[in-house]
Amino acid sequence: MQGAKLVNRAENPLGWLHARGKITGRQFEAGEKLRGDFLKAGDGPRISMSWDAAPPERGKRAAPDGLLPGERVSAAKRRSDGALNAAGPGLSDMLRRTVCHGEGMETAEKALGWPARSGRVVLGLALDRVADFYRL
After folding, report:
1. Which residue ranges are recorded for the region named Disordered (predicted)?
2. Tens of pLDDT along 55-82?
C-alpha cells in the first residue's frame, strides 16, 4: 500500500492543519471561535431536534451572560457575520467552506476555481483577520 494516505474523517480541516503545524495556535483559536459562533447562530446544518423553545433558566442555573436563547443566537450570528466580513471578500469564501462547513482544502479550492495548494495561504490570511476581529 505504498502512497496510501490515512485520513481521520472525524477530524475537521482546521484541526488537521493545526495538528501538523500548518497554522498557528492563534489562527486555530480564531477558527474555532468562528465555527462555534457559526453553529450557535444556527447557520450550520441541523442534525437533531431544536431545543430553542425551552423556557429560560433563572437563578443559579441561568446562563452567565443573562441572555435568552434567541438573544444568544442573534449575538452569535452578529459575531460570525462580523468575523466573516472582517476577513473580507474572497478570504471569507475559504473560511466559510473550510471552517464553518468543514470542507476539505482540496474540495474548497476546486469549488472556488483556485489553483492547488493556494487555499492554505488564503486561509492563513483569513484566520489572522478573524483573530484580530476576536481580539486574540
Report:
1. 41-68
2. 555 555 555 556 676 788 888 899 999 9
